[in-house]
Amino acid sequence: MNIVRTLAVAKKETRQIMRDSRSLYLALGIPVMLMILFGYALSLDVDDIPIAVWDQNRSPESRDFIDRMTSSGYFRLVVQTDNYPEIVRDLDRNMISVGVIIPFDFSHHLKNGSSTQIQAIVDGSDSTRANLAIVYLDTISATFEGDLKMESLTKQAVQSRVRAPIDPRIRIVYNPELRSRNNIIPGLIPVIMMIISALLTSLTIVRERETGTMEQLMSTPLKPGELVVGKLIPYFTLGYVDLLLVYIMGRYVFQVPFRGSLLIMFGVSSVFLIGAMSIGFLVSAVASNQFFATQLALLGTVLPTFLLSGFVFPISNMPESLQYFTYIIPARHYITVLRAVYLKGVGWDAIIWPTLALVVFALFVTTLVARKLGKYTL
What angle do CA 315, 358, 228 make, to 5 degrees? Predict the structure, then answer.
């Protein structure tokens, strides 16, 4: 490979990018916009769910249960009512999402050690919010019941000198506050990198063909490998600027902890960028015009990255055949690496396999691009 010819192509491509304001907007504007939109708007946490309570029992036990719900931060008491139609009316008007009815014999059953039932009417029009509300209610009810049983058993244990039952102590590691933003931001980086890389580079070759300069390039002593690397250099630099931008925003704007090595993150990111940009080159080499190239890049890279990488939907919840298919999505492996480096602070030994998958993918796509461009020289 001739360095002088390669750098000449890189210089030409850099001038082309600087003249094209759309490319600069795509490269620098979209990452910031996506980070702000996803960072602030996309949150899987559901807090402050408005509820109405009909406390038929009005005992210290029922008030304790209501206090536990409201002090958990998941629920916000909006209405205290004494009739069922008002709960239904507030649900219809979207004033509340959950109506809780505590029965008359609530404390009586608790004191006797028998089971009691609390009725919850949940607005199912928002299934995600409804499911989380049910989970929160189940958890609070189970904790409340467990505390009562533990208190009763402890008294019995003191009186009869019997060993107390198991008291589980749960410790959540890596993301103890369970902030969804800590999970979203590292997962968002591959999506942004794939969008920028594929869209920008998908226009390079097809634009040369449309303007008639591709034949001029191929008539020079330039080799396909030199053309690919020369065109890759300025876009690779732009990708690194985006990566730095996203990292700084995630760290200092959204306060996402970074416990790993920057060297590992930028090293793996380099491999991913090469693979993603090569996909764009491949799309550009087979597309007939710039519009088709853009559409093909969106359908072929951005949608699979968004839907099948595990960024939004857990891969374990997908059908088994689709789970195997996700192994060919490079963002799946990149997200695995980034989440491990960001939240767990792991080293190379823990991420060796997803990193190797990215290396293989980058080599495979780059070779395909070089062969495709080699046909123009024949």
Answer: 130
pTM: 0.74
The structure tokens listed for 34 are 């996506």
Distance CA 43, CA 371 (A): 43
- Residue 191 pLDDT more than 70? yes
**Structural contact between residues 124 and 131, judged by C-beta atoms closer than 8 angstroms:** no
CA distance 137 to 145: 12
- In this prediction, residue 166 carries a pLDDT of 47
Cβ-proximal residues to 244 (8 Å cutoff; 6+ apart), any chain: none
Range 99-102, long-range pairs (CB < 8 A, 24+ positions): 99/51, 99/52, 99/53, 99/54, 100/51, 100/52, 100/53, 100/54, 100/66, 100/69, 100/137, 101/53, 101/54, 101/56, 102/53, 102/54, 102/55, 102/56, 102/57, 102/62, 102/65, 102/66
Alpha helix (H) ranges present in 178-261?
A: 180-201, 204-211, 214-218, 224-248
Q: Given the structure tokens 């093909």, which residue do they identify?
A: 296
Residue 68: count other Cβ atoms within 10 Å of its Cβ: 15
With a CB cutoff of 8 Å and minimum separation 6, the contacts of 320 are: none
Nearest to 232 by CA among 36, 80, 10, 59: 10
Q: Phi/psi of residue 75, each to 5°?
A: -125, 150
Closest CA to 376 of 210, 223, 198, 200: 223
**How far apart, in whole angstroms, are the C-alpha atoms of residue 231 and residue 67?**
63
Residues 6+ apart with CB under 8 A from 283: 198, 201, 202, 293, 296, 297, 300, 301
* pLDDT at 206 > cutoff 70: yes
C-alpha separations of 226 from 15, 92, 186, 232, 286 in Å: 18, 65, 33, 10, 19
Q: Give 249-291 pLDDT, tens digit per residue.
A: 888 888 888 888 999 999 999 999 988 888 888 888 888 788 8
Name the region of 122 (left: φ>0; alpha: ψ -120 to 50; beta: rest): beta
Neighbour count for residue 218 (Cβ, 10 Å): 16
